[in-house]
Every structure is written in structure tokens, then in C-alpha cells.
Amino acid sequence: MIRHLLFLILILAVLCSINPVFAIDHNRIYEIVSELRGLAKKGSEIHAEYNLNNTADVRKCVAANGHLRKKAMALVEETKTIDDFFYKGRLSQAAYAAFSCVYCGGNGQSCPEVEPLLLETENLLKDDGFKFPKK
What number is the average pLDDT over the span 14-18? Predict the structure, then answer.
């Protein structure tokens, strides 16, 4: 009985001393937040600048901003790899909204959806003790 108890204590001590297998890179999370915020801003500008019901304007928009969709899709894919459920959920939603926001079509209704999700993510970062860079 005592051997089992000592063995259990040893296992608990080892488990408690192990660093988490999936450490969160808070700096990268913050970078993703910044990139998504920039995409949402640019997407709002796109929807203000172009008449996306006009085929010629859509072509101009795609020529000038097609790279933003690729960047947004890369962020969508990156957010899928985040191991922390809370960060992953919010950032995935924000990334999909940003992807839709920079799309040269639609009405831009997804653009305002991005910022509240980013603010929630920043609150999580703050709760985790992340030190935000000075602006």
C-alpha cells in the first residue's frame, strides 16, 4: 500500500514539473491580432472605395487587393494550428471575418465583426500576463 502511494506521489511530482507540451506563443498571438486588425481596416477601406456592384470596379479591386485575400487565408490556416481553445476560437472567427472583409464583393458586413473578437483576444492575453508592446 505504501509503495503504491509513493509511486503515485512520484508520478504526480513528475507530471507537475513538466512544462506544458503546447506552450502558447503570446507574441505570435499578438502579431496575428495586429495583422487581422490591419486587414479589417483595409477591408473597410475597400468597401468604401469601390462600387462592388460594378464589374469594372470589382476587377480593379481584385487587381489591387487580391494579395490581401491570400494573406487572410494564410492567417485562417495559421489560427487552425493554435492549441489553446480560447485563442483558437476567437482568432479563427476573426480570421474568417477578415477574409470575408477583404473580399472584393459583398457589402462588407463582416468587417465590424473582427474588432470585438480581437478585443476579446487581447483581454485573454492580458489575463495571461502578456506585456503589450508600447505604441
Answer: 52
Cell 509503495 belongs to: 3
CA angle 54, 58, 62 (to 5 degrees): 175
Element containing residue 91 per DSSP (H, E)? helix 85-101
Phi, psi dihedral angles at 20 (to 5 degrees): -60, 140
**pTM reported for the whole predicted model:** 0.81
Give the tens place of pLDDT for each residue, 80-135: 999 999 999 999 999 999 999 999 988 899 999 999 999 999 999 999 999 988 86
Asked if residues 29 and 121 have their Cβ atoms less than 8 Å apart, the reply is: yes
Distance CA 86, CA 128 (A): 12
Nearest of 31, 100, 115 to residue 68 by alpha carbon: 100
Q: Which of 17, 22, 44 is nearest to 88 (CA)?
A: 22
Place of cell 508592446: 133
**Dihedral-angle region of residue 130 (phi above 0 means left; psi in -120 to 50 means alpha; beta otherwise):** beta
Residue whose entry in the numeric block shows the C-alpha cell 503546447: 22
